[in-house]
Amino acid sequence: MDFKDYYKVMGVARDATEAQIKQAYRKLARKYHPDVSKEKDAEARFKELGEAYEVLKSPEKRAAYDQLGQGPRPGEAFRPPPDWGSGFEFGGAGPGARPGGDADYSEFFESLFGRAGGGARRGRRGFDTGRGEDHHAKIMLDLDATLQGGSRTFTLRVPELDAQGRLVSKERVLNVQVPKGILPGQTIRLAGQGSGAAGEGTPGDLYIEVEFQPHALYRIDGRDLYLELPVTPWEAALGASVKAPTPGGVVDLKIPSGSHAGTKLRLKGRGIPAATPGDFYVVLQIALPPANDDDAKAAYGAFAAALPFNPRTTLGV
Amino acid sequence: MRSVVPGTLTGEIFEDYAMLSIDELSRLCAVDRTYIVELVEEGVLSVTEVASEWRFPGAALRRARTALRLQRDLEINLPGVALALELMEELDRLRRGLEIGRK
User: What pairs with residue A171 in β-bridges?
Assistant: First the structure.
């Protein structure tokens, strides 16, 4: 088990005051909150931060934690000392009341302060209807899933109470047919896949919030897709037929003469599918051939001589 | 512990069909209905009235849950949550525009 340096996680000194700890928490929570943050590891950092704050904000837990010292030397495994926790009372709301609610604690935390009891955590059984709890999860999808549909396998971590009433984190592997046309920010509802899915009573439902991984070629805006397509100056000026990738395969695209950088060409209905599907937009970019040998330099020179052109007239120079 | 759910599950896009009553929405968010009323009064959630009863579009679920998390985790009050949500949407819009025009 790894020792966790909660002071380091929060970026505060070991003698920090309660006010300093609270301030550090607020600042970091805003930075790493999964709903707000664009940091890659935001979710993990936020979880770690919540755990650190849970310990350091409580005078009892902090004092007990401080007794452990700075932890073992690097590479050495951590084990709580045999007299751990004696003389301390970890009262109050307990771990279940920590901000964020449904995340679980590290092994390190649980070895010191125990597992969260069931009661305090999201314990509402839907207004006493006897129905199992609904679960909520979040997944990253690839763009192809919404364009073509098809099934994807997801591994979700689900907190569950075991036979002894202790909270354990269980992995559930689901194979899900992704609804064609789903957009980032939407939710897949799987009826009956919440709590009690395999047991007695009416099970709750599973709600999966969907976000998309960035695509190598296409950007998404609503149901529309955008591709930036490089063309040569002569293709743009004279018009041409060029090949362009689209989700449905490579197409021959007609570039109208007199096109320029930023010209938008629309392929109607080739965006994300729906009753009224989105469109596919090709945005032109002008790519210049490099002038790195004598022939190319001579060609650019001839070009300049034949076409006197000042692109800066609108700037007054 | 790891369990594999057999077969392929077919899901629906919740936002495509859901129209929620205030009781359904508060149950799904595991909050009291007064909290949902506050979100409506603050302009965080929009409602339509059907036979003098509130109806929420499916998208309200995710918005309400985000509002709830922001409020709980960052200890901000409702007007602050409303402002944060609006700014986050604006940021999203700008980021998308930037991605389209970049490179």
Answer: A157, B2
Mean pLDDT on A97-101: 42
pLDDT, one tens digit per residue, over A274-293 is 999 999 999 999 999 999 99
Torsional class of A272: left (φ above 0), alpha (ψ -120 to 50), beta (otherwise): beta
Topology, domain A6-113: Helix Hairpins (1.10.287)
Alpha carbon of A78: minimum distance to chain B alpha carbons (Å): 23
Q: How far apart are alpha carbons A109 and A190 in whole angstroms?
A: 33
A103: which 2 tokens?
A: 């995340």
- pLDDT tens per residue, range A112-124: 877 554 333 343 4
At the top level of CATH, which class does the domain B14-98 belong to? mainly alpha
pLDDT tens track for A154-204: 988 777 767 777 767 778 899 999 999 999 999 999 998 887 766 667 888
Report yes or no: A213 at the B interface, CB cutoff 8 Å. Answer: no
Q: Kindly determine whether residue B70 and residue A33, on different chains, have CB atoms separated by under 8 Å.
A: yes
Query: Which residue is closest to B66 within chain A, CA to CA?
Result: A35
The upper half-sphere exposure of residue B101, i.e. CA atoms within 13 Å in the direction of its Cβ, equals: 6
Minimum distance, in Å, between the CA of residue B75 and any CA atom of chain A = 8
Cβ-based contacts of A225 with chain B (< 8 Å): none
CA distance, residue A305 to nearest chain B CA (Å): 30
- For chain B, the structural domain boundaries read 14-98
d(CA B103, CA A283): 11
Q: In the numeric block, which tokens belong to residue A282?
A: 């090709």
- Pick from A36, A197, A226: which is nearest to B88 by CB? A36
Q: Where in chain A are the domains?
A: 6-113, 126-212, 218-306
Query: Which of the listed CATH numbers 3.40.50.300, 2.60.120.590, 3.30.420.40, 2.60.260.20 matches domain A126-212?
Result: 2.60.260.20
> Per-residue b/e over A154-187, b at no fewer than 16 CB within 10 Å?
bebebbeeeeeeebeeeebebebbbbebbbbebb
CATH of domain A218-306: 2.60.260.20
Taking the C-alpha atoms of residue A51 and residue A40, their distance in angstroms, rounded to an integer, is 19
Question: Tell me, what DSSP letter sits at residue A178?
Answer: P
